[in-house]
Write a structure and sequence with these properties.
By secondary structure, the protein is α/β, with parallel strands linked by helices. The chain has helices at 138-145, 186-194, 233-244, 254-267, 303-312, 314-326, and strands at residues 27-32, 38-42, 55-59, 61-63, 67-72, 78-88, 91-97, 107-110, 115-122, 128-134, 171-174, 198-204, 227-231, 249-252, 273-277, 292-296, 337-341. Helix 5 (303-312) packs across helix 6 (314-326). The relative contact order is 0.21.
Length: 343
């Protein structure tokens, strides 16, 4: 298939700039996988689509306030660092801007000296490896001086940085939020549990590659970025128990979906696993684990809309997006939600 097959026209005003309050008051477009029929709901109505014996699997990664502004020690020039992947206790892969101000041996200071950095390697893609100096806990320091790395299409300032975290965020390491989970509240999760639905967690640290555009005309030529995941034994047991009892697995978000399908592909079954995945899911893929998918509305021609198309069918997906535009749903990270389900 071609990249252009996944294009749709989106008016700029439908790109959500701020989150809604309360979280579960966002809109929900429920799409029947078999018929393509669409229903307009509120997100809190998600509980009506869950049945006793189903399970809900969420990604509990926590977003780092990974964007920092500092100065180069020798020149005083301003530089931006964006944390990507932790390589060791004090070493990270980072994006720097402007790059020409961050060459091997250059040193930087952030937050009035509470954090320092030295570039020790320049990678082939232009990213840097930087070694940091700090006192105490690195993540505590970052929490004080860093900013949330909001996507480029969000131009308004985020007043409360916790609104770019899920209420169940726990494992620090993401450069972007698993936004499908932003709609859940503790109260809604309790209602879901009380209905007899088990809730399990995986961790996939979302990289900025999730926003990387597909440039290849033929989508099969696109190479996915790699991200680290962990699926604990407890979650594997929940999924296997659900399947053996005839229940359905609801994946919350494309990151959760990619984690579950990666483990199913690598292991042949769902089991505890810790690793890296660059799985690229597009039409023609045969799903091995998930039965239903909760996700936000994604960018045109992105790998994420391709994943949704693989799950719900190309025609159903593109038709649902057309309806969402016509009905003025809010799109992308702070936007509304969609549910692709089977009975």
């Amino acid at each position: 298939m071609k990249r252009s097959d996944f294009y749709y026209d989106l008016p700029q005003e439908l790109i959500a700039q701020t989150p809604v309050e309360p979280r579960d008051s966002s809109r929900l477009l429920a799409v029947n996988k078999k018929t393509g029929e669409c229903s307009h709901k509120s997100f809190k109505d998600i509980v009506d689509y869950l049945k006793p014996g189903d399970c809900l699997i969420l990604n509990n990664t926590k977003v780092l306030p990974a964007r920092m502004y500092g100065t180069r020690v020798d020149t005083g020039s301003v530089v931006e660092f964006l944390l990507l992947n932790q390589k060791s206790y004090d070493t990270w892969e980072v994006i720097t801007g402007p790059g020409k101000k961050a060459r091997v041996g250059h040193k930087f200071t952030f937050g009035n000296g509470c954090l320092t950095a030295e570039v020790i390697e320049v990678l082939s893609d232009g990213n840097r490896i930087a070694r940091f100096g700090f006192e105490g806990n690195f993540f505590d320091v970052i929490d004080k001086i860093g900013e949330m790395p909001l996507p480029h299409y969000i131009t308004e300032k985020l007043e409360d940085k916790n609104r770019y975290q899920t209420v169940y965020a726990k494992e620090e390491g993401s450069a972007a939020a698993p936004t499908a989970g932003l709609h859940f509240t503790p109260e809604l999760m309790n209602i879901i549990k009380e209905k007899g639905v088990e809730i399990g967690f995986v961790t996939l640290h979302v990289g900025l590659g999730t926003f990387r555009p597909v440039k290849a005309d033929e989508i099969e030529d696109h190479h996915m970025h790699s991200e680290h995941y962990y699926l604990p034994a407890e979650t594997a047991e929940i999924i296997n128990r659900t399947k053996s009892n005839g229940g359905r697995v609801f994946a919350v978000g494309t990151t959760c979906c990619r984690t579950l399908e990666s483990v199913a592909n690598f292991r042949g079954k769902i089991t505890e696993d810790d690793g890296w995945t660059d799985i690229f899911i597009y039409p023609g893929y045969e799903f091995k684990c998930i039965d239903c998918l909760i996700t936000n509305f994604h960018l045109p021609e992105s790998t994420l809309i391709m994943l949704v198309s693989a799950f719900c069918g190309y025609e159903n997906t593109m038709s649902a997006y057309k309806i969402a535009v016509e009905e003025k749903y809010r799109f992308f990270s702070f936007g509304d939600s969609s549910l692709f389900y089977e009975e």
